[in-house]
Amino acid sequence: MQGRELYHKDTPAYSRETSRCFIHPLDLLELGAEEGDSLLISTVTGEEVFSVTPSEDLVPGTVFLPCGPHANAILHANTHGTGAPDYKWMEGSLALTKVLPRSGWDILIEQGGAACPQVLESGGGTGNSTPVYDVVCPLCGCLCDDLVIWVEGNTITAVDNACAMGSEKFLSRSRLTTPILRSGRSWAPIKFHEAIRYAAEVLSNAERPVLFGWSGTSAEAQCIGIHIAEEIRGVIDNCSSICHGPSIMGIQEVGHPGCSLGVVKNRANVVIYWGSNPIESHPRHLSRYTTFVNGRYRDNGHQDRTLVVVDIRKTDTAKIADEFIRIKPGGDYAAFSALRAIIRGHADSIPPKVAGIPRERLVWLADLCKNAQFGALFTGIGLTQSPGRYKNVRNAIELVDELNRHTKFVLTPMRGHWNVNGTNQTFSYLTGFPYGVDFARGVPYYNPGETTVIDLLSRGEADACLIIGADPGAHLPGRCNEHLATIPTIVIDPFVSLSTAFADVHIPVACVGIDCEGTGYRMDSIPIRLRKVLDLGLPTDEEVLLKILHHIQEGAKPRAADHTEVRPRMGAGDVQRAS
Ligand SMILES: Nc1nc2c(c(=O)[nH]1)N[C@H]1C(S)=C(S)[C@@H](COP(=O)(O)OP(=O)(O)OC[C@H]3O[C@@H](n4cnc5c(=O)[nH]c(N)nc54)[C@H](O)[C@@H]3O)O[C@H]1N2
Ligand SMILES: Nc1nc2c(c(=O)[nH]1)N[C@H]1C(S)=C(S)[C@@H](COP(=O)(O)OP(=O)(O)OC[C@H]3O[C@@H](n4cnc5c(=O)[nH]c(N)nc54)[C@H](O)[C@@H]3O)O[C@H]1N2
Ligand code: SF4
Ligand SMILES: [Mo]
């Protein structure tokens, strides 16, 4: 599972997961291939070798590629004016090959990156660990707050209550402790103050700097980042643009009928996951908030609720659902329109099949929703990254609007990172826009498809990049990484990430929720304070960013008369000014 290896991206295990391709046995028969064979997948963008895993969950003719550098090496960077590429939609051809898949890092080296730096492994425990209770998990948008972390000295030895994905973040040993400077294709250690000064100079000297990421760091650090962007007249974008940005665009058009996850837990008797596979992507969502958990008005957990999954594949979530409805890739807009028409009483005008779904199934689903006591629709990136994008989400919201004439229904996007929702809160609070904010004119300007990271990198427009709390090396189309390799790039990350390959300087920091505190916003916009369970003596994101900001301000020549020193409005409280 790729998710379990997210905090071990420098290991062969991660590359093994991201170089798999899932394919139907009938297609394998036609190709004469079997499990473990190598397949060369070719698209208009390029070709990459993957290792075969047979899967009957797919429809013949479609191949499923896990998220990672292998899939992204052959994905084009066109976002169709939305900021989000076609992560869920690539056309290509397959051929058997004898060549074995490459490692993720080999792909990055070909894209212009440097070799993986060495990480000092910290020691294991001796059996005298002490527990820390009620710890919040800094991984996905569920922000589970019931973890028990076992600590011994400066090492985490065990994690209770978290899913495997969350546990692995706490247990990861891929941490850097000293800043490193790239020299040629290798690395040299440097001091923190040198690295910070270097970062400030790079950003000050750039014409079109881009500050990207932010969903892996605290709301306080995000606020300082926005002030840096304003000071250098740069672009600041967060992971939403490549993720649920289209959901936000849909919400901007027609509003958001949402509620807290606690309300869903207490009231919902119909739960739908549409284009979302939480068993793999938000593993505790069903057991904590929606399905298996008892609620105030739902005494019998699962038995009181009907769980429906709409997906193009029979996912692990679909396998445990009461009903699985298979939809054709890209068919969501049509299916939402059909459901709206049925609810309006026009079932007769619906063709026998819509997007591969028989009319009777749509009528059944419309009835289930209309007769729900309380319904909750959870939408995933199967909607935002497939054809239709924000229009899919808009149509889903309009369906929910329609249902609210009959009953109570809500919609929640399945936000990915633990604080990606926070990026939208802080960006909107300080600039008026949720992501892709361009300060080139001195005032905030926002235009997805123009001021969003994939577009800025693939057009070759950015001339310096700060990456914090994101890993473009693993997650952006190859074309973007090729550009990153040609411009000065600063990475601020507690862990070695694939983006380290493109860094001129990598500044390691304390990890929010592990060795420092910080605020995160759960997927339902509830702010939760993350705890500190270790002290590794590393500076926090807030401290590093604030020093960068102050260096920039000190070096800045007085601009127009309107120039005043930027004072962060949040998160700058007790941090000393750099000398
Ligand atoms: N294991 C793991 N978990 C993660 C992450 C990770 O990298 N690994 N990343 C986190 C992040 S950032 C995010 S945003 C979330 C994403 O979490 P999810 O929203 O669950 O995202 P995916 O599993 O990528 O895609 C959801 C489903 O969309 C389906 N799909 C593809 N095309 C279509 C289509 O046209 N229509 C419909 N209806 N469905 C389609 C796919 O088959 C897939 O099952 O996961 C978070 N959790
Ligand atoms: N092929 C394909 N590609 C995809 C997708 C897909 O479905 N398919 N999904 C897309 C989506 S939805 C998204 S959101 C992106 C994934 O988005 P990314 O943001 O690239 O995801 P991660 O790899 O989780 O990166 C988070 C980074 O934050 C760092 N980090 C963790 N804690 C801290 C902290 O406290 N401080 C700092 N400074 N850093 C920290 C981690 O070490 C890691 O490097 O990928 C996109 N790419
Ligand atoms: S479901 Fe998400 S927040 Fe909860 S333990 Fe797993 S990764 Fe962490
Ligand atoms: Mo995401």
Number of helices: 21
Bound molecules: ligand MGD, iron/sulfur cluster, molybdenum atom
- Largest beta sheet: strand ordering: 10-9-24-23-22-11-12-20-21
- By CATH, the architecture of the largest domain is named 3-Layer(aba) Sandwich
How many independent structural domains?
A: 3
How many β-strand stretches?
A: 26
N- and C-termini, Cα separation: 46 Å
**Protein structure class:** alpha/beta
Return Rg in Å: 24 Å
Mean pLDDT: 94
- Helix percent band: 25-40%
Biggest sheet statistics: 9 strands, mixed
Q: Determine the strand fraction and express it as a percent band.
A: 15-25%
CATH topology of the largest domain: Rossmann fold
Question: What does the model show?
Answer:
- With 579 residues, this protein is of the alpha/beta class.
- Helix content is 31%, strand content 20%.
- The strands form six sheets. The chain has a nine-stranded mixed sheet with strand order 10-9-24-23-22-11-12-20-21, covered by helices on one side. It has a five-stranded mixed sheet with strand order 4-1-3-2-5.
- A hairpin with a 2-residue loop joins strand 7 and strand 8.
- Helix 6 (192-205) crosses helix 21, helix 7 packs across helix 17 (420-431) and helix 8 (245-254) packs across helix 16 (389-403).
- It binds ligand MGD (2 copies), iron/sulfur cluster and molybdenum atom.
- One ligand MGD is lined by residues 2-3, 6, 67, 88, 140, 165, 243, 274-278, 280-281, 310-313, 315, 327, 329-330, 332, 380-382, 386, 414, 416-417.
